[in-house]
Design goal:
This protein has 138 residues and is mainly β. The chain contains one helix and eight strands; from the N terminus they run αββββββββ. Helices cover 6% and strands 37% of the residues.
Length: 138
C-alpha cells in the first residue's frame, strides 16, 4: 500500500460491480455489446452509440502513462503525502483512468512509461486502483 490517503469511493448501482471487483484485486471494465467500445467510467448507457447493452470483462491491468503531474504541495490530508503523482493511465484496452502512480520516485515518472495496476485498500470494502512501474513490459 502507498502512503497516499485511500478514501472510500462513492458506490452506486452502475459502479458496484467495478468496486466489488477492486476489493478482490481485479480490474473490471464495461464493453458495449453493440459497438464494441470499452467504457470508462462505468455507466449503463454506452457514450459512443447510446446502447444499453453492455458486458463486464476483466482488464489486463496494464497500460502506459498518458499524462501526469507531480503535486508537491498537497492540501488537507494529502499535505503529508506530497510529493505524489496524479496521472492519466491509458489502459491496453483503450480507456484512460485518472489515478496515481505509486512506488516510484515522482521525478522518474515519464509519458509512455509502462505501468500495471495495484489496489490500495480503503478499509471500507472497495480498493483504489493505482499504478506502479512495470519493468517487465517491453
Amino acid at each position: 500500500m502507498s502512503e497516499l490517503p485511500a478514501p472510500a469511493p462513492p458506490v452506486n448501482i452502475e459502479t458496484e460491480p467495478f468496486w466489488a471487483a477492486t476489493a478482490e484485486g481485479r480490474l473490471l471494465l464495461l464493453r458495449c455489446d453493440d459497438c464494441g467500445a470499452v467504457i470508462w467510467y462505468p455507466r449503463s448507457i454506452c457514450p459512443n452509440c447510446r446502447s444499453s447493452t453492455t458486458s463486464w470483462f476483466e482488464a489486463s491491468g496494464r497500460g502506459i502513462v498518458y499524462s501526469y503531474t507531480v503535486v508537491r504541495r498537497g492540501q488537507g490530508r494529502w499535505r503529508e503525502a506530497a510529493p505524489y503523482v496524479v496521472a492519466y493511465v491509458e489502459l491496453e484496452e483503450g480507456p484512460r483512468l485518472l489515478t496515481n502512480i505509486v512506488d516510484c520516485d515522482p521525478d522518474e515518472v515519464r509519458i509512455d512509461m509502462a505501468v500495471r495496476v495495484r489496489f490500495d485498500p480503503t478499509g471500507e470494502g472497495p480498493a483504489l486502483p493505482r499504478f506502479v512501474p512495470d519493468p517487465s513490459a517491453h
